[in-house]
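User: Could you go from structure to sequence for me? I need the amino acid at each position, not a summary. C-alpha cells:
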C-alpha cells in the first residue's frame, strides 16, 4: 500500500498487545511504524509481520552492528519480513555497510537501509572515551559520508544536525529525525527538540514521533494536528 507520510510513529511499548491497541487506532495510509529493540525482543518477527499484513510500513529499528556476513544476513531476514526500513551502525564500517546494501539488492523486497552515526546520548567526553577524536558533529558528518559512500539510503540524526548534513550529502540521501515535539505536546525526557514543521523545513525526510502520538488520548487526532501543522 503506498504511503506518502513522513511520520514514523515509535511503538515504544513493552508488549504486542499494548502496541496493537494503539495501532488499531491509527491508519496505515497516514503514518509508518517503528519497532525497536524492546518490542522486537518481546514480540518478535510474528508481530512485525502482523503490522506489515495490516498494511503498515515498518521501520525495524534494531541498529545492527556485527561482522559484515552477519549483518548482511540479518538485513536479508528483515527484508523477508517485508519491512520498509532497517538500520545498522555506521561504526560497523564500510565493508559491513556494503555487505548489508548488497544483501538487500539481492532480496525479493528492498527496504531502505539507514545508518546510525553517533548515538545522540553520547557527548564529546563519551566519544573520546571510546577512542573517537573530534566533536560529535564532526563524527556524525564523517560517518554520514561513509554511509552514503557505502551505498546506504540515509542516516538517523538529530534535527539539529540536518542543516549541516544537507550541505555534505546528496539531496536523495534520507535524513530520519527523532527528537520531534509539536508545540502543543510535552517535552518529556527529550532535551533538544524541534517541531515537525521546523524539522521538515530544515530538510528532514522522516520524523520519528513517539509520545506526542502514542500517549495522546486520541492518537489519530494528534496525528491529524501534526499533519495540519506540516501542511500549514
Ligand atoms: O516519545 P519520543 O517522541 O521521544 O520517541 C522518540 C523515539 O525515537 C524513541 O523510540 C527513541 O528511542 C528514538 N530515538 C530518539 N533519539 C535518538 C535516537 C532514537 O529519541 N537519538
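Assistant: Here is the amino acid at each position, in order:
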Amino acid at each position: 500500500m503506498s504511503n506518502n507520510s513522513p511520520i514514523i510513529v515509535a511503538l515504544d511499548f513493552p508488549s504486542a498487545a499494548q502496541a496493537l491497541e494503539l495501532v488499531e487506532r491509527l491508519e496505515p495510509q497516514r503514518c509508518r511504524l517503528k519497532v525497536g529493540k524492546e518490542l522486537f525482543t518481546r514480540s518478535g518477527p510474528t508481530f512485525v509481520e502482523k503490522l506489515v499484513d495490516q498494511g503498515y510500513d515498518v521501520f525495524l529499528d534494531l541498529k545492527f552492528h556485527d561482522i559484515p556476513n552477519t549483518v548482511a544476513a540479518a538485513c536479508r531476514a528483515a527484508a523477508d519480513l517485508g519491512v520498509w526500513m532497517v538500520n545498522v551502525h555506521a561504526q560497523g564500517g564500510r565493508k559491513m555497510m556494503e555487505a548489508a546494501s548488497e544483501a538487500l539488492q539481492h532480496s525479493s523486497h528492498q527496504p531502505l537501509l539507514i545508518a546510525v552515526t553517533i548515538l545522540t546520548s553520547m557527548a564529546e567526553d563519551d566519544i573520546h572515551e571510546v577512542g573517537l577524536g573530534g566533536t560529535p558533529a564532526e563524527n556524525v558528518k564523517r560517518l554520514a559520508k561513509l554511509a552514503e559512500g557505502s551505498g546506504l539510503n540515509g542516516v538517523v540524526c538529530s534535527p539539529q544536525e540536518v542543516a549541516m548534513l544537507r550541505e555534505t550529502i546528496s539531496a536523495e540521501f534520507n535524513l530520519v529525525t527523532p527528537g520531534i515535539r509539536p508545540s502543543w505536546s510535552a517535552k518529556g525526557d527529550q532535551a533538544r527538540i524541534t517541531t515537525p514543521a521546523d524539522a521538515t523545513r530544515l530538510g528532514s525526510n522522516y520524523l520519528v514521533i513517539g509520545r506526542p502520538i502514542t500517549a495522546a488520548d486520541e492518537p489519530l487526532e494528534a496525528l491529524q494536528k501534526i499533519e495540519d501543522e506540516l501542511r500549514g
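One structural detail worth keeping in mind: The CA atoms of residues 124 and 227 lie 35 Å apart.
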